[in-house]
Amino acid sequence: MRQRWVEALADPEVAVEVLDDEEHPGLVVAFVAFDEAEVRHLGVHPRYWRRGHARKALGVATSRMVDPRLWVLERNHRARSMYEHLGWAPTGRSRPAEFPPFPVEVELAYRR
User: Fold this and answer.
1) Which CATH class is domain 2-110?
2) For the chain, which end, N or C, has fewer CB atoms within 10 Å of the first or last residue's CB respectively?
């Protein structure tokens, strides 16, 4: 997973946006890394879940993307539920993850 981050951050095609807490400027609560077609990483500090930060971060990303896609672990029901609630839908494609024990990832596409 670390290697994936190193590669994403070194890629000039990848943009990274960081959201801070409006009440505590400088306190990072979420981030999103993406290129023109794929959300590479999304993270929200657990203390800030369910406050709209994922929606906001994904909104920043998808506004700058063409045909947005992302990959999520098939059994990550919390993440899949959140994505589907925000308008992402399965494409029918799947693949093994790049890291052991190689769980299945499914592709989601954003439906504007």
Assistant:
1) alpha beta
2) C
Please return the burial class of 80, using the count of CB atoms within 10 Å of its CB with bins 0-12, 13-18 and 19+: middle
Nearest to 86 by CA among 105, 66, 104, 60: 60
Task: Decide: 96 and 103 in contact? Cβ < 8 Å.
Answer: yes
User: What is the pTM (predicted TM-score) of this model?
Assistant: 0.89
What are the sequence ranges of the domains in the chain? 2-110
Q: How far apart are the first and last CA of the chain?
A: 29
User: What would the two tokens of residue 22 be?
Assistant: 């409006």
Tokens in use for 7?
Answer: 């590669």
Q: Which residues contact 67 (CB under 8 A, 6 or more apart)?
A: 37, 109
